[in-house]
Amino acid sequence: KQWYQRRVRGTWLDLPPLIAPTKCSVLPLSSNEQFTPYVEKISADLRKLGIPNKVDDSSGAIGRRYARTDEIGIPFGITVDFDTIKLNSVTVRERNTCSQIRVPLDEVTELVNRLCLDQTSWNDAKLNYPEFTSQETV
Predict the structure, then answer these.
(1) Fewer CB atoms near the end CB (10 Å): N or C, the chain?
(2) CA distance 92 to 131
(3) Could you tell me how far CA 113 lies from the centroid of its own chain?
(4) In b/e form, how buried is each residue of 25-35, taking b as 16+ CB within 10 angstroms?
């Protein structure tokens, strides 16, 4: 198996979720202070389920932060954005395809847990949650 994969916009470490040391990143879309309580709660809830996660609240663009997490092999990313505040949901991104789905806040940690334990597939998750292509509100 080739562990490093390449795509047009970068390289990523292709670790299966079961063996990836960090399973999920939690990323605020920007440094907006309204995002902080959501990021902290999601990260804490993931830790309660035993899911190692990394919060990246640095000032870089979201695409650059996705690329950094891809390079170190983090399979999933949760993004807190303005729709989180308005719609009570977040985006979940899968590293290998870069595809994203919109997931209610009260379901996101359990979904990530099932994905990391290989109890559900990304394709199944995409069937159960709407694809995310752009924010509805700003």
Answers:
(1) N
(2) 10
(3) 12
(4) bbbbbeeeeeb
What is the arithmetic mean of pLDDT over 35-39? 98
pLDDT over 90 (residue 112): yes
Tokens representing residue 83 in the block: 């729709």
* Pick from 47, 43, 93, 91: nearest CA to 67: 93
**Model pTM greater than 0.85?**
yes
pLDDT per position as a tens digit, 58-110: 988 999 999 999 999 999 999 999 999 999 999 999 999 999 999 999 999 99
Backbone angles phi, psi at 20, to 5 degrees: -65, 130
Contact 25, 53 (CB under 8 A): yes
Instruction: Let me know if 98 is exposed, middle or buried by CB neighbors in 10 A (0-12, 13-18, 19+).
Output: middle
24 touches 44 (CB < 8 A): no
If DSSP states are collapsed to H, E and C, what string results for 121-135?
A: CHHHHHHHCCECCCC
pLDDT at 99: 96
Q: Are strands 10-13 and 4-7 parallel, antiparallel or unpaired?
A: antiparallel
- For residue 130, the model assigns a pLDDT of 96
